[in-house]
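User:
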Amino acid sequence: MAETMAGQSPAAQSEGEDHPTVRARMADRHVGARIRERRLMLGLSQQQLAAMIGVTYQQAHKYERGLNRISAGRLFEIGLVLDVPVSWFFEGLGEDGATQPLGSRQRMCLELARNFALIDNEKHQEALSQMARALAAQSQGRAVD
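Assistant: Predicted structure:
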């Protein structure tokens, strides 16, 4: 299939972004990106996720890239494994199928959650949690509980 400079086939470009097929592909990419985001938040590799949902590493990679559509049953299983409801994968997806961009604050929160999940020592996690509570209370001008 011929690809254009933008990475879309000529047929896809003629369909426009409001065409159902294009919106579906955009949604597939969004859901895949959310799977990747959650996997990274939990500190899992693609290989680990693939094993947990019973697919090959290559298939998990295709899901995350939005190259292969995910069935409802498979998405439900992925949600169970990643401990999120199915609706979580669609958060931030506009009605037109476009992904709403993450702000720098959201990216920082995701990175913080991902790094926190990688800390093995429970005492270190608790210390970091207490520090975050204290800083948040200070920012809000209130006493720490």
